[in-house]
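Handoff note, outgoing to incoming analyst
You'll be picking up this chain. Sequence as last confirmed:
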Amino acid sequence: MSDCVLCPRACHVNRLAGQTGYCGQTAELMAARASLHYWEEPCISGTSGSGTVFFSGCNLRCVFCQNHNIALGKAGRVIAPEHLAEIFLQLQEQGANNINLVTPTHFLPQIVIALEQAKQKGLHLPIVYNTGSYESPEALRHLEGLVDIYLPDLKYFSPELSTAYSHTPDYFETACAAISEMYRQVGDPVIDEDTGLMQHGMIVRHLLLPGQTKDSKKILRYLHETYGDHIYISIMNQYTPLPQVADIEALNRTVTPEEYDRVLRFAERIGIERGFRQEGTTASESFIPEFDESGL
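Most recent structure output, in case you need it:
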């Protein structure tokens, strides 16, 4: 981390010396919450919850992010990799279905250390890597054999959208290369027939943005044509306009039922069968946990 190129931003900063790149984090591992989380896809959360660890900082920092405070590194506390390993084991003791690493990219080396230590001490749960997908395939290869389930986003097809909202004109091609590497590692989904919980595989998430049904359709077509039924696709309508987008007219509203239904009908028409949809009114700040350092 003395010349950080962990993600495609390739900031080349010396994080060991306390410098920060785009993610806003030094080499000190920082997290904002560790707890059982019940709002993931059913095959991840189940009834017992997913053992989530929310890391501070982010290499995307989307303008509409629901985890805005931690993405900017304004919440969280410094913990050692050895302590993170203990947190994994505590979540396992609490009955978690899996260990869910949320926005972990910029701490990948420390997480690898913690996972290896926890597994040596008896951690046996599936490991979920929950990411915005602005990832380097070279960095992801360090996770091979450690991660069981990849939970990546595919946010944008349009470079205009990705530039405006995440400052990443190369988002689509970069994310697609990362998702390809993730699939190479974990392969087709494996679901436990007794519990309905995923043990291995990949779920690609796509969050609809208001007014962007055409972009969403292009993403769904790409995923289905590339992976067919070898992955699950989660089509989400929970976009919630938070105060930081009040001045961005295009983002300052929820997705309408008509927009969501249009995208769902398209998914059915092109033959997507392994997928998740959200029912009812899901746009709500109640889906956003308190980043109060609980569980750390």
